[in-house]
Protein backbone atom coordinates (compact mmCIF):
# COMPACT_ATOMS: atom_id res chain seq x y z
CA UNK A 1 0.00 0.00 0.00
CA UNK A 2 1.32 3.41 -0.97
CA UNK A 3 1.43 6.08 1.71
CA UNK A 4 0.97 9.05 -0.62
CA UNK A 5 -2.19 7.59 -2.14
CA UNK A 6 -3.99 7.68 1.20
CA UNK A 7 -2.74 11.13 2.29
CA UNK A 8 -4.88 14.20 1.61
CA UNK A 9 -2.77 16.95 0.00
CA UNK A 10 -5.54 19.54 -0.27
CA UNK A 11 -4.57 21.41 2.91
CA UNK A 12 -0.94 21.43 1.81
CA UNK A 13 -1.87 22.83 -1.62
CA UNK A 14 -4.04 25.53 -0.03
CA UNK A 15 -1.20 26.62 2.26
CA UNK A 16 1.30 26.75 -0.63
CA UNK A 17 -1.12 28.79 -2.75
CA UNK A 18 -1.63 31.27 0.10
CA UNK A 19 2.13 31.63 0.54
CA UNK A 20 2.61 32.26 -3.18
CA UNK A 21 -0.17 34.86 -3.29
CA UNK A 22 1.22 36.58 -0.19
CA UNK A 23 4.71 36.66 -1.71
CA UNK A 24 3.48 38.05 -5.04
CA UNK A 25 1.33 40.73 -3.38
CA UNK A 26 4.18 41.78 -1.07
CA UNK A 27 6.60 41.98 -3.98
CA UNK A 28 4.18 44.08 -6.04
CA UNK A 29 3.59 46.42 -3.10
CA UNK A 30 7.31 46.92 -2.55
CA UNK A 31 7.92 47.55 -6.25
CA UNK A 32 5.13 50.11 -6.45
CA UNK A 33 6.00 51.99 -3.26
CA UNK A 34 9.78 52.06 -3.70
CA UNK A 35 11.36 55.35 -4.67
CA UNK A 36 13.65 55.48 -7.66
CA UNK A 37 17.34 55.18 -6.95
CA UNK A 38 19.04 58.57 -6.80
CA UNK A 39 22.73 58.10 -7.63
CA UNK A 40 23.56 61.76 -7.03
CA UNK A 41 22.08 61.63 -3.53
CA UNK A 42 24.06 58.48 -2.75
CA UNK A 43 27.29 60.06 -3.94
CA UNK A 44 26.60 63.18 -1.87
CA UNK A 45 25.88 61.04 1.19
CA UNK A 46 29.09 59.05 0.76
CA UNK A 47 31.32 62.04 -0.05
CA UNK A 48 34.57 61.72 1.94
CA UNK A 49 33.58 58.28 3.25
CA UNK A 50 34.32 54.68 2.36
CA UNK A 51 31.83 51.88 1.88
CA UNK A 52 32.84 48.23 2.03
CA UNK A 53 30.92 45.14 0.96
CA UNK A 54 32.21 42.08 2.81
CA UNK A 55 30.78 38.65 2.28
CA UNK A 56 29.91 36.05 -0.29
CA UNK A 57 28.85 36.16 -3.92
CA UNK A 58 25.52 37.78 -3.02
CA UNK A 59 27.32 40.79 -1.57
CA UNK A 60 29.58 40.91 -4.61
CA UNK A 61 26.49 41.00 -6.81
CA UNK A 62 25.05 43.87 -4.76
CA UNK A 63 28.34 45.73 -5.05
CA UNK A 64 28.45 45.30 -8.83
CA UNK A 65 24.81 46.44 -9.11
CA UNK A 66 25.64 49.58 -7.11
CA UNK A 67 28.65 50.27 -9.34
CA UNK A 68 26.45 49.95 -12.45
CA UNK A 69 23.90 52.37 -11.01
CA UNK A 70 26.56 54.92 -10.07
CA UNK A 71 28.32 54.45 -13.39
CA UNK A 72 25.50 56.29 -15.19
CA UNK A 73 26.04 59.64 -13.46
CA UNK A 74 29.84 59.71 -13.33
CA UNK A 75 31.98 60.84 -16.26
CA UNK A 76 34.80 58.52 -17.35
CA UNK A 77 37.45 60.79 -15.82
CA UNK A 78 35.82 60.74 -12.37
CA UNK A 79 35.77 57.00 -11.71
CA UNK A 80 38.08 54.04 -11.54
CA UNK A 81 37.61 50.31 -11.08
CA UNK A 82 40.64 48.32 -9.95
CA UNK A 83 41.02 44.57 -9.43
CA UNK A 84 43.30 43.24 -6.71
CA UNK A 85 43.02 39.48 -7.02
CA UNK A 86 39.53 38.66 -5.78
CA UNK A 87 38.96 42.18 -4.43
CA UNK A 88 37.51 44.99 -6.54
CA UNK A 89 37.87 48.66 -5.64
CA UNK A 90 35.57 51.26 -7.20
CA UNK A 91 36.59 54.87 -6.66
CA UNK A 92 34.45 57.88 -7.51
CA UNK A 93 36.22 61.22 -7.63
CA UNK A 94 33.29 63.55 -7.10
CA UNK A 95 34.36 67.18 -6.98
CA UNK A 96 32.54 69.22 -9.60
CA UNK A 97 29.96 66.71 -10.79
CA UNK A 98 27.39 67.34 -8.07
CA UNK A 99 27.89 71.08 -7.88
CA UNK A 100 26.46 71.68 -11.35
TrEMBL record:
MF GO annotations: O-acetyltransferase activity
Trichome birefringence-like C-terminal domain mapped to chain residues: 36-82
TM annotation in the entry: 12-31
Source taxon at top rank: Eukaryota
Pfam family name, one: PC-Esterase
Keywords, ordered alphabetically: Membrane, Transmembrane, Transmembrane helix
A GO CC term attached to the entry: Golgi apparatus
Similarity section: Belongs to the PC-esterase family. TBL subfamily.
Protein name stated in the entry: Protein trichome birefringence-like 33
Lineage: Eukaryota, Viridiplantae, Streptophyta, Embryophyta, Tracheophyta
Amino acid sequence: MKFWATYDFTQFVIIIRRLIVTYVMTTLFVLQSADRFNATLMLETLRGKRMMFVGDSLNRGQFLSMVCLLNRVLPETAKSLENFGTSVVFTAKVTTLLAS
